[in-house]
Amino acid sequence: MPLYEYELCEGDCAICGGRFALRRPINAPEMKTCPLCKKPVRKVISTFNTPTKLKPLSITDAKKAGFTVLKRLGKGEYERQ
Ligand SMILES: [Zn+2]
């Protein structure tokens, strides 16, 4: 299940700290309120989803993220690294 990050639209919350992360099914309906304090929340675009904005994506990072890295051998052949 993907990990989603949420923050309160306004104000602060002693229960969730104003920002929290939850693992939810990918097809779950958009969460509109904090399950703890019931205040309105918005989804934060997690840095996990945009690693290229932080640093150049390396093969090691891609593998860590679960990508299968393919090395081109030529003539349409690829080797799993
Ligand atoms: Zn809360």
In short:
This protein has 81 residues and is mainly β. It has one helix spanning 59-64, and strands at 3-8, 19-23, 41-44, 70-74, 77-80.
Low-confidence stretches: none
Number of continuous helical runs:
1
What about the largest sheet?
3 strands, antiparallel
Hetero compounds: zinc ion
Computed over alpha carbons, the radius of gyration is 18 Å
How many strand elements? Answer: 5
C-alpha end-to-end distance: 26 Å
Major sheet strand order = 2-1-3
The helix-strand sequence is EEEHEE
Percent range for β-strand residues:
25-35%
Mean pLDDT: 79
Query: What's the domain count?
Result: 2
**Secondary structural class:** mainly beta
What general outline do the C-alpha atoms trace? elongated
Helix content: under 10%
Structural commentary:
β4 (70-74) and β5 (77-80) form a beta hairpin. The chain is elongated, with a radius of gyration of 18 Å. A three-stranded antiparallel β-sheet has the order 2-1-3, with no helix packed on it. Strands 4-5 form a two-stranded antiparallel sheet. It starts with a strand and ends with a strand. The protein has one helix and five strands; from the N terminus they run βββαββ. The model has no long low-confidence stretch (mean pLDDT 79). It has one helix spanning 59-64, and strands at residues 3-8, 19-23, 41-44, 70-74, 77-80. The protein is mainly β. It folds into two domains: 1-49, no CATH class; 51-81, no CATH class. Bound molecules: zinc ion (ZN). Zinc ion binds at residues 13, 15-16, 34, 36-37, 39.
Using brief descriptors, characterize the structure shown:
3-stranded antiparallel beta sheet; 1 helix; 2 domains; 81 residues; mainly beta; binds zinc ion; elongated
